[in-house]
Amino acid sequence: MESLNQYIDHTLLKPEATEADVDRVVKEAIDNNFYSVMINPYWVSHVHNLLANTSVKTATVIGFPLGANTTNIKVAETNQAIEDGADEVDMVMNIGEFKGGNYQTVQEDIRSVVTAAHKRDTLIKVIIENALLTDDEIAKAADIVAKTGADFVKTSTGFSTKGATAHDVAIMKKAVGDRIQVKAAGGIHSAQDAEDMIKAGATRLGTSASLKIIGK
Asked: Key word Cytoplasm present in the record (predicted)?
C-alpha cells in the first residue's frame, strides 16, 4: 500500500469555515502531501491560488449536500467551479429520484454533469449517500454511476446519518469492478479506518481527520 497521504482528499466542508480555517487546511495539505484539498465552491478560486506551484489538487462539491438541485444548476455550478480552478468535482446524485425508482432520470442528471466536467478535463466523483440506501440500492446506484462514465463513485457527503463503512465500499467495488474507482468519505477517523476502506476497494479517502490518520 502506498503512503496513506496520497489517498486523502483533505476536507473542510463545514458551513462555518472561515478563510483562516481554509488557509490552515491548505497549509496542512501542502505540508503533508495530501492528494487534494476539498472545499465548498465559494473557496475554490482562493484555494486554487494558494495551491499554485504545488502538486496538491483543488477539489469541490456540486449539488451539495442534498443532490436535489436541478440538472442545469449542477452543470452551471460545475462549469463555475472549473473556471475558478477546480481540478476535481464531487457531485451528489438525485437521491429522491433514485429512491423513487426513476433510474433513467438519475442517470441523465449524472451524465450531464459528467459531460460538463470531462469537456474541461476535470475528474468527477458521484456521491450516492449510502446511509440512505439498502445494500441492493448501493449496488444499483454504483452501477448507474459507472454507466455514466464518471471517474469515481463515492459513499457519502458526511452530512447524513452516517458516513462510509468498509461493508458499503465492498458492495460498491463489486458492483463497478474495474470500470471506475471508489471513494470512501465520512466517518474515517483513524489509520485503521483508512486501511479498512482501502482493503475493501477504495482508492481515495475523503476525511477531515487527515492529520490523525497519518499520525500527526
From this structure: yes
